[in-house]
Amino acid sequence: MSIDTATAAKVAKLARIRVEEDDLPALANEFNTILGFIDQLNEVDVEGVEPMVSVTPMRLKRREDVVTDGDQQDKVLSNAPDAREGFFAVPKVVE
């Protein structure tokens, strides 16, 4: 697949990127280079290769999943313009 200047202009418009008319051939060339790299990657045989998130094997740190209240009620309510009885106070909007 080859990208021409008209397609490069369309992609730039869809991406909402302003590209001058003189720069369109260079942009089309960059797109073609990227597509060439993708074609090279498609030639690699990945049959039986497990997906991985990193090149070095490591186990993520985990913590016990425990539900808590955060114990920060006073700190959170200190920023409220109006707090009553441990809750945010808001104006009544429904009669």
Briefly, what is this?
By secondary structure, the chain is mainly alpha-helical. The chain has helices at about 5-15, 25-40, 75, and strands at about 85, 85-90. A two-stranded antiparallel sheet has the order 1-2.
Describe the protein.
The protein is mainly alpha-helical and 95 residues long. 36% of the residues lie in helices and 4% in strands. The protein has a domain at 5-42. The chain has helices at residues 5-14, 24-42, 73-77; strands at 83-84, 87-88. Strands 1-2 form a two-stranded antiparallel ribbon. The mean pLDDT is 90.
Question: Which structural class is indicated by helix and strand composition?
Answer: mainly alpha
Unreliable segments of 5+ consecutive residues: none
Order of helical and strand elements: HHHEE
Beta strand %: under 5%
For the biggest sheet, the summary is: 2 strands, antiparallel
Tell me the number of strands.
2
Distance between the termini: 64 Å
Rg from alpha-carbon coordinates? 28 Å
Helical percentage: 25-40%
Task: Estimate the mean pLDDT confidence.
Answer: 90
Shape descriptor: flat
- Strand numbers in spatial order across the main sheet: 1-2
In DSSP terms (H or I, runs of 4 or more residues), the helix count works out at: 3
Subunit structure: Heterotrimer of A, B and C subunits.
InterPro entries: Asp/Glu-ADT_sf_sub_c, GatC
EC number: 6.3.5.-
Enzyme class: ligase
